[in-house]
Task: structure prediction
Amino acid sequence: MPFEIEDSGQARPPDGAIVIALLNNMPDPALEATEGQFGSLLAAAAGTLPVRLRHVWLPEVPRGPQALERLNRRYFSIEALYADPPDGLIVTGMEPRAATLQEEPYWNRMVQVLEWAQTHTASSIWSCLAAHVAADALYGIRRRRLPEKCFGVFEHQVIGDHALLRGVGPVLPTPHSRWNELPVDRLRAAGFEIMSLSGETGADLFLSPGDSPLICFQGHPEYDELALLKEYRRDVGRYLRAEVAGWPNLPQGYFSAAGVATLAQYRARVEQARDPDQLGNFPMAELAADIRPHWQPAGVTIYRNWLTHLATLRASSASARSFQR
Result:
């Protein structure tokens, strides 16, 4: 099979496959969905390339008992990752709880993983909050709070002709969902190469300087078609439970005109009563049927370029780690 997921309980001899480790730091409710999103993306990107995906977890990320049971049963430990380095590493974000990233219980371990990845993997991808950790730990770039949530599918201008974006086209659509950003001017001053950009989201895809650059995303090309819908429904639930003051903003560039109208009707019915039970009437199925994941082809292309780069490195004796232009 061109793509498969490794079993953490069974040792695998080398077989020529490209091994990708996914360090999944997402909160418990999103743990399994994140596995599926990255698994589907890598499977589509692999094509005829043999690729094996290895799930890894950090003990410092707070977990509940059900998640811990899944992690202990299906995931590799961080020590196993260190003992058997993969070809490529993907590090997801995690749920922030402290006032600063340095105060999070996982900070020291994430810095350790960051330093290890630069010398023990051919390439690594840092997603959303993980990219914020990398920029802060390596270059002292602190993320800043946005006045409102960056939420939706946004179009980004592709800058330059980097091999990672070969075949993508001049406009890159990518989902974003975050409350913080890395300032573009600080990234550029530190030597980051920004490869996709928009006035609404700032830096979307960018590479750190140096011989072994980190591939950083502030967005989520791995998202499936329902990820933003589920998040929006969660935010509506928080409003109905009076956990937040205002009705959540719609994700931009995501719903069709018919979907926007459906949500306006739902809001008109439930906003006055503000009863948590009204979440059961959220038009999930109707909205889901109308969503088209137009960002996915570009995401598959980017990850295919990455896997092809890893395959080329394995097949050659070249020591260079950076993408060739």
Q: What stands out?
A: The first strand starts at residue 3 and ends at 5. The chain has a mean pLDDT of 93. The longest helix spans residues 296-315. DSSP finds ten helices and ten strands in the chain.
